[in-house]
């Protein structure tokens, strides 16, 4: 009677959206495309390649494939220079409490992230050993809102999809969880995440009693 609890990484466990934003902003500036935190919101949960396509759409621009690839490589190097400085201080509030409570209560835990840098980031913040399995952007071909990443995580946990609960900060991620037939819990703004079954502003608002109800349900 175990449940599977699947956590997105960026924006759920750590606030890397700020670093993605800085790196994309530098790229957009170099192309003369205006890009603010409002536009950045549309890139949350979206794959690296799809993100650059969206930025180019914002600027009504197209690029030759080799230039596209060069910019993607630069952006990731730039992003990783921010990641390099990360420490466990950057784990978002009450994430360690929630992970501990769930594993102490015998639940199965997975990471389900679109990021190809997920393992690097978990290593930097010291959370590599907290999950029974990790599924990241190097292991899936279809981006959220496609449910592939969460379906694969559930398989690796040996828990059926209908017994899985997903924590997500991006609309594409909530849709992916819903498409997988899982219970979706939004972390962030309820107006953005309105398709989620529940929304909390952050993990400090998620009590152990609520987690217990999820386990028992
Ligand atoms: C998601 C982020 O988790 O991962 C996106 O929300 C990001 O902003 C995507 O583009 C891919 O990440 P990466 O690290 O492989 O470029
Ligand atoms: Mg996210």
Automatic annotation (TrEMBL):
Binds 2 magnesium ions per subunit. The record marks 113, 144 as: Important for catalytic activity and assists the phosphoryl transfer reaction to Asp8 by balancing charge and orienting the reacting groups. It comes from the Bacteria. One of its GO terms (biological process) is carbohydrate metabolic process. Mg(2+) binds at residues 8, 10, 168-169. Gene3D superfamilies: HAD superfamily/HAD-like, Putative phosphatase, domain 2. Belongs to the HAD-like hydrolase superfamily. CbbY/CbbZ/Gph/YieH family. This is Beta-phosphoglucomutase.
């Amino acid at each position: 009677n175990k449940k599977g609890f699947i956590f997105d990484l960026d924006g759920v466990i750590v606030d890397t959206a700020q670093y993605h934003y800085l790196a994309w902003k530098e790229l957009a500036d170099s192309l003369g495309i205006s890009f603010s935190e409002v536009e950045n919101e549309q890139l949350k949960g979206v794959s690296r390649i799809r993100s650059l396509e969206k930025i180019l759409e914002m600027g009504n621009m197209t690029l030759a494939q080799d230039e596209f690839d060069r910019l993607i490589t630069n952006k990731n190097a730039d992003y990783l220079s921010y990641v390099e400085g990360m420490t466990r201080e950057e784990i978002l509030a009450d994430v360690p409490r929630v992970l501990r409570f769930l594993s102490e209560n015998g639940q199965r835990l997975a990471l389900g992230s679109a990021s190809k840098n997920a393992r690097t980031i978990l290593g930097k913040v010291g959370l590599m050993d907290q999950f029974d399995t990790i599924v990241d952007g190097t292991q899936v071909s279809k981006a959220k809102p496609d449910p592939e990443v969460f379906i694969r995580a559930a398989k690796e946990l040996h828990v059926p999809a209908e017994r899985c609960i997903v924590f997500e900060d991006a609309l594409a991620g909530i849709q992916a969880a819903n498409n997988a037939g899982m219970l979706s819990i939004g972390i962030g703004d309820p107006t953005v995440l309105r398709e989620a079954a529940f929304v909390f502003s952050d993990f400090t608002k998620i009590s152990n009693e609520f987690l217990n109800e999820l386990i028992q349900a």
